Structure of 5'(3')-deoxyribonucleotidase:
Amino acid sequence: MARIAIDMDGVMADSTQQYINWYANRYGVTVAKESLLGKPETTGFPLDGVVRQFLYEPNFFRTKPVIAGAQEVIKALQEKHEVFIVSAAMEFPLSLAEKLAWLEEHFPFISWHNIVFCGYKHIVAADYLIDDHVKNLSTFKGEPLMFTAPHNVNVQEFKRVNTWEEVGALLL
């Protein structure tokens, strides 16, 4: 049985789609996900800097779409492994309560005992960390698994998983 730490934003919750949806709703312009490939997160939109402001708005974290396959694979992982959701939730004041409510709605099978909200993730002790950010994976002492997101497509120093089906094939 392995201990698996799983990030939320960009791994379970589709942050990129949420940026696109909120930008389209606010400014009437739909940005293609492909146009964001290789660009730093929250950049690549016609009005520079506005997308980062969404992170401070009510319901941004609460209404993110679930990434395809996450619910099924995480539930299956729990049957074989010790699974923890590990999410940075301190930087944006509204995110903590919204992330918890999001998890309760979309992942009701995850106990509160297995949810870790933190700042830096380097304190996490697990066998695997599934995350989309270099800053978290580079300090992890177990085996880092980079979950593909537009902002990390050019990163090559970590083992990559592109979908939840690939996570399942690797860890189930």
About this structure: The chain has two domains: 3-14+64-171, 15-56. The longest strand covers residues 82-88.
